[in-house]
Specification:
The complex is a heterodimer of chains A (511) and B (712). Chain A is an alpha/beta fold. In chain A, 37% of the residues lie in helices and 11% in strands. Chain A is built from 18 helices and 12 strands. Chain B is α/β, with parallel strands linked by helices and 712 residues long. Chain B contains 33 helices and 17 strands. A 6-stranded parallel sheet of chain B has the order 7-6-8-9-10-11, sandwiched between helices. In chain B, helix 10 packs parallel to helix 12, helix 11 packs antiparallel against helix 12 and helix 26 crosses helix 31. The chains are: A alpha/beta (511), B alpha/beta (712). At the A-B interface, helix 4 and helix 11 of A face helix 1, helix 4, strand 5, helix 5 and helix 23 of B.
């Protein structure tokens, strides 16, 4: 990015004065040189609001873990602020194997917060809640939204604000990174910025003002949430989102800060995929697998199961095939006891089974036991999902069940063993199952190698390294060094993000 | 071994229940199940150690009078608490589990008594509780022994409930069913609720209890009497309006047309106006919505032989015309640009919109889909979740209108509808109900908007929520419907009112031309008897008179039966109708043929087609009968009789008669000989095909939709 491409930065926050005055000359000093100077005094400190950090068995946990680890690798002290582990038991559950690869130097502050609505111990219920649970819930949601315009989590605002201020007083921070959801994290980021001048960045992942599932705007700019988002965007150091359509939404909605919006894709962890796909055994029966949260509609699952049944009837290779569904279904009282569970159970005689969640350490082994994968996703062009990268990296044939115009389609385009996307067209889906069955036997080594090559650029480590390095650089820059490009961190940009002076000048990303 | 007691407030899905039992069994638990269960659906090999099934609807059906206003959870508890089986089981249970939201309260209450048990909501939580129990010391024998004895907290709560319920207890003692059914009881309580110097809150509380007792005693009229009398004594206008509305609403729910409807509607509108003046538009919208819901309830207009709206349209609508809130909603917003002329050089883009009901669109759609000059898109607003949510959102629509068209709802409508409006050159909205209101919530730009009003919409609330200044062309199916709607909706006479057209429904009548056997000459027929408004008893009266002269005549009734639960009027009508049938069916004078998908075939046996309705839009069944060469006999629909337009102006001279006697005369004349009958039928068929067949009507649609010179 040439120097003259700089935009007006007068609207950007004035960062707290760096410990060592003025960067060298024209501001092209390398990140390591700056950090080296800081090391003489004190290591930079990141407060990372990451509700969903391991051991929470949530899909966002991988991204959070990698982000925190990368900051540590760059020589930062990292304090993760999350909620108590026990609180996840009533939500998505816990997976302590996720914590095994968390850098031991990372400090984790667990707040005594939990989703009150997911409480299942009836002894803790008031009589009013026991008597009229729906009314109680409606009042809770209303109450939460009076505190912060986010149902479910709004009530956490005070505790989160106090927590980040306390952490900062104890160990002054150079940067706060808020990962959303929950969006109430933004209130804590704002508090620390207003009261202590600590700059902040936001990992929005799926974005707030965009309805990623149905498309369109989730709230208007003049709504309370809209005012909050605008305020946060005005002063935000950097905004990460997971795909281009979401980034486009934010750039269009806030053109004055478009250059701070970056695509940081989710990617996959290398240790989550098996070394090589297994050899299909028709006599033992092919096994198709789904791994992920079972959060789609009853209709979507019905279509999958109907197509599966039809494919088993039509395709001799699938006559004794199995479909293994793994992951979380429901939360709170309805965990593993909702209508989707019922549908899966009804399909038992068609070789369909539900095996519950998979611990992170067992993900690779789970994939190793499957011959093909079924990718069932909600939403459309604004949804990517993290799973798609992992699926791709396994080298197995993939049957897609999602909208045609879905970001996962963009990621998978070019994958030689991908069925394509057909929405919920049952007939096409039936054929896709049949073709995937044939591909398990007929795929050549060259095709499988091509699949893996397709996935190579999407390792989480690679993607996050670039993104974190860029953000760390911003945080330790003078105000005039703030990013001025309109760029995305994307695998294809790899060569340009090595830390050369121009890349540093451009914030580590290429346009 | 851990004992688990599962409580169901609503019948669990069999698969989920089986899965729950399996998971608990894997933890080594003994499992007992109680509550709302459908025993026919329970898996045969469920594997529970004990089961006590109660009716499926225990959460819905009040167990006692006090249960009328109880929450579902409270009803389940009231039903279960006295069951000896449950008392036996809960004391020894280690884990009490609510299987659904309606069972929570029962488990909560049981947990007050069994203090050593875990009380959980959901099976996954129960499994976790079993695991946790294994890490805790077991309860002592003394703790177990005291299970079932009330704690001091329960005693405190019990006393508190008793104190709070004191008026309730006192009232209950003197509102026994026999007393409430008597005139003395009603008079006693009427005096009591109107006693002077009683605070509003106490008066309202007592009134509600007495009203509940009246309802429990099967006296919805008494319930309304008490609430109306109390309302007149309340000092706060909002409370008064609320209680008047409640009285009217309870009567409508019971299928009765309320006597005090007008005061209730006026009171609600008055409070709505107050709220709107201080910009409390959500509240104002709520009140206006309630007033509209009451005033246009189907019990008043559809499910009885008369309607206050048809008798005196101006008088009926007057309170709304006087209301600031209602007139603000109805005020025209206009459009910034006029509709653009049809495009040249490319096909016209026609968006056809409806919500769920496309019964009258099929021929129109097929015609334009095959038309080279038209590109058609069809949107069913009920089939798209995002659109459905904004379509049937009466309160949000009203609030939007009251808030100077600035609400989050309006922004959503804009976002969801604008792509459709941007694409279309012309939008055709069928049925003048919520979709028409929705499409006129926002400025249509240069897109031309056409809406069609069939019949029932005229006596619904929706035309009062449509912005007609944003509609370019409004289609009616008959002149008398146009007259009624124009009387009720003054905006249709304003300068910026839409152009109005009368176009017949799209019907393929050629398929009805099937030769009739000679016996059909003496067979009268009616197609459609599922509403009171069809008034089949009028046709039966015609038959009775006819058979006095010639008992060869019979009446065939085609269609499903009326639902007796929609109104008292329907119930009473149906009772009398069934008495008629009991008299006439055994001899074969009347035959009910039930619903059918093959109307043309049914019509081959019908020689005389009767329209006995009190109101109709255009009565397709009659037109189809005429097309089949049955002789039409049309009652001068009383809703419109004597007005400038009515059945008499819709149908050819001679078809329409005023009384059963005149009907008999027409039938005897036209069926005097087979030749006369066939000749009259043929003339009717020729008229029907010439005037109403789609091959003719489609050109009228073309002229409207495509403009002159583009008809196909």
């Amino acid at each position: 990015m040439p120097d003259n491409a700089k935009t007006d930065v007068s609207h950007l926050p004035v960062l707290p004065s760096p410990p060592v005055s003025a960067s060298s000359g024209n501001g092209h000093s390398s990140y390591s040189a700056r950090l080296g100077r800081r090391d003489e005094r004190v290591r930079p400190h990141l407060i990372y609001l990451a509700i969903g950090f391991p051991p929470a068995a949530k899909s966002c946990a991988y991204r959070m873990r990698e982000t925190a680890n990368q900051f540590r690798r760059l020589g930062w002290d990292v304090t993760v602020v999350t909620i108590a582990a026990a609180s996840w038991e009533r939500d998505s559950g816990l997976d302590y194997t996720l914590s095994e690869n968390v850098d031991p130097g990372i400090e984790i502050v667990e707040l005594p917060l939990a989703r009150e609505d997911l409480e299942t111990d009836i002894r803790k219920f008031s009589e009013e809640r026991a008597l009229r649970p729906d009314k109680w819930l409606a009042r809770l949601r209303k109450r939460e939204q009076t505190i912060f315009p986010e149902p479910v989590f709004g009530g956490w605002r005070g505790t989160l604000e106090q927590a980040v201020v306390d952490v900062h007083r104890r160990h002054p921070a150079d940067l706060l990174l808020a990962s959303c959801v929950p969006y109430v994290n933004l209130a804590a980021a704002w508090k620390l910025w207003k009261e202590c001048g600590v700059p902040y960045a936001v990992d929005f992942r799926d974005g707030w003002s965009i309805d990623v599932v149905n498309g369109g705007e989730a709230f208007t700019p003049d709504s309370e949430a809209g005012v909050w988002e605008r305020r946060i965007m005005d002063h935000c150091l950097s905004l990460w989102v997971v795909n281009d359509p979401i980034a486009e939404h934010y750039r269009a909605r806030y053109p004055h800060v478009a250059d701070r919006v970056h695509v940081v894709r989710n990617g996959y962890d290398k240790d989550s995929v098996p070394a090589r796909p297994r050899k299909a055994d028709l006599d033992a029966g092919l096994t198709f697998g789904y791994l992920g949260t079972v959060n789609y509609s009853r209709q979507q699952l019905s279509v999958v199961l109907d197509a599966w049944r039809a494919a088993r009837q039509q395709e001799p290779m699938l006559r004794n095939a199995k479909l293994d569904i793994r992951g979380h279904i429901g939360a709170g009282a309805s965990r593993e006891a909702n209508s989707l569970t019922e549908l899966i159970r009804d399909a038992e005689q068609d070789g369909v089974s539900f095996g519950g969640p998979v611990r992170k350490a067992e993900v690779a082994d789970t994939y190793a036991g499957w011959d093909a994968l079924v990718l069932i996703l909600i939403g459309g062009r604004y949804v990517t999902s993290g799973k798609v990268y992992e699926y791709m990296a396994t080298g197995l044939p993939i049957v897609s069940v999602h909208e045609i115009d879905h970001d996962a389609s963009r990621v998978l385009t070019g994958h030689p063993l991908w069925s394509g996307a057909f929405g919920l067209d049952e007939m096409k889906l039936t054929n896709a199952f049949r073709e995937a069955a044939r591909a398990t036997l007929e795929a050549t080594d060259t095709e499988r190698a091509a699949v893996r090559a397709h996935a190579d650029p999407f390792t989480r480590e690679g993607l996050m390294t670039r993104a974190v390095q860029q953000l760390a650089e911003y945080a330790l820059s003078d105000a005039r060094d703030l990013p001025v490009n309109n760029a995305a961190v994307h695998p294809s940009d790899g060569a340009a993000t090595g830390g050369q002076s121009e890349a540093v000048r451009a914030g580590g990303v290429n346009a | 071994m851990t004992e688990v007691l599962l409580v169901a407030g609503t019948p669990p899905q069999p698969g989920i229940l089986a899965g729950a039992v399996r998971r608990l069994r894997e933890k080594g638990a003994r499992i007992y199940l109680v509550g709302a269960l459908n025993q026919d659906e329970l898996p045969a090999d469920l594997g529970v150690d004990g089961l006590y099934a109660l009716p499926e609807a225990i959460a819905k059906t009040p167990h006692s009078r006090s249960g009328l206003r109880a929450a579902p959870g409270e009803r389940v508890w009231a039903r279960l608490r006295r069951e000896p089986w449950l008392r036996e089981r809960y004391r020894s249970a280690d884990v009490l589990v609510a299987m659904d939201a309606h069972a929570i309260y029962t488990v909560w209450r049981l947990a007050q008594r069994n203090r050593t048990a875990d009380a959980r909501y959901g099976v996954a939580a129960a499994v976790q509780a079993i695991a946790e129990r294994k890490t805790r010391p077991a309860p002592s024998p003394l703790q177990r022994w005291t299970n079932g004895l009330p704690t001091s907290e329960i005693v405190r709560q019990g006393v508190s409930r008793l104190v709070q319920a004191a008026p309730h207890v006192a009232v209950s003692a003197v509102t026994a069913r026999p007393l409430m059914r008597s005139k003395i009881g009603t008079q006693l309580w009427l005096t009591a609720v109107q006693a002077p110097r009683m605070p509003d809150s106490l008066r309202a509380k007592v009134a509600h209890q007495v009203a509940d007792s009246m309802a429990w005693a099967g006296r919805p009229d008494g319930e309304a009497l008490i609430l109306n009398a109390t309302a007149r004594k309340l000092s706060q206008p909002a409370a008064r309006a609320g209680m008047l509305a409640e009285a009217a609403s309870q009567q409508l729910k019971a299928g009765i047309a309320p006597h005090d409807l007008k005061p209730a509607v006026e009171a609600l509108l008055s409070v709505a106006d107050q709220r709107h003046r201080v910009d409390e538009n959500a509240a104002a919208a709520n009140l206006l919505n309630r007033a509209m819901t009451l005033a246009f309830d189907r019990v008043l207009h559809i499910d009885q032989l008369t309607s206050p709206l048809a008798q005196d349209p101006e008088g009926f609508i007057a309170p709304f015309r006087r209301s600031l809130t209602a007139t603000t909603v109805a005020a025209p917003r206009g459009r910034l640009q006029p509709a653009a002329p049809p495009p040249t050089g490319r096909p016209l883009r026609l968006l056809i919109a409806t919500s769920a009901n496309d019964n009258f669109l099929k021929l129109i759609r097929a015609h334009y889909e095959a038309h080279p000059g038209v590109e058609v898109r069809f949107v069913d607003l009920a089939a798209n979740a995002a659109l459905k949510k904004v379509t049937w959102a009466a309160k949000s629509m009203l609030e939007h209108r009251l808030s100077a068209d600035e609400t989050a709802y309006g922004a959503k409508v804009e976002e969801r509808l604008r792509p459709h409006l941007d694409w279309a050159d012309t939008v055709f909205v069928d049925w003048c109900v919520a979709p028409a209101a929705l499409f006129t919530m926002i400025d249509p730009g240069t897109t031309r908007i056409i809406a069609r009003l069939h019949s029932y919409e005229a006596i619904s609330r929706w035309p009062h929520m449509v912005d007609f200044s944003r509609i370019d062309d409004l289609i009616f199916v008959a002149d008398h419907i146009k007259d009624l709607t124009t009387t009720l909706v003054p905006q249709l006479q304003a300068a910026d009112a839409p152009r109005t057209h009368v176009l017949d429904n799209a019907m393929d009548l050629r398929g009805f031309q099937i030769d009739k056997p000679a016996e059909a000459r003496f067979q009268l027929g009616m197609v459609g008897i599922n509403q009171v408004a069809k008034d089949p008893r009028w046709a039966i009266e015609v038959l009775r008179l006819l058979r006095r002269q010639d008992d060869r005549y019979r009446l065939l009734l085609v269609g499903g039966e009326m639902n007796p639960d929609v109104s008292i009027a329907t119930r009473e009508y149906l009772k009398a109708f069934h008495q008629d049938l009991a008299e006439l069916e055994p001899s074969g004078a009347v035959r009910r043929l039930g619903p059918t998908n093959d109307v043309p075939k049914m019509l081959t046996d019908i020689g005389v087609i009767i329209s006995s309705s009190v109101r109709e839009g255009c009565h397709c069944g009659l037109m189809e009968g005429a097309a089949s060469a049955a002789v039409p006999v049309v009652r001068d629909w009383p809703f419109f009789a004597g007005r400038p337009h009515s059945a008499r102006t819709l149908y050819p001279e001679g078809w329409v008669i005023g009384t059963p006697e005149e009907a008999v005369e027409r039938i005897l004349t036209t069926t005097a000989t087979e030749e006369a009958w066939r000749s009259a039928g043929r003339a009717a068929s020729e008229h029907a095909l010439r005037e109403w067949d789609w091959s003719v009507v489609k050109h009228r649609f073309d002229r409207l939709i495509l403009g002159d010179g583009q008809t196909s």
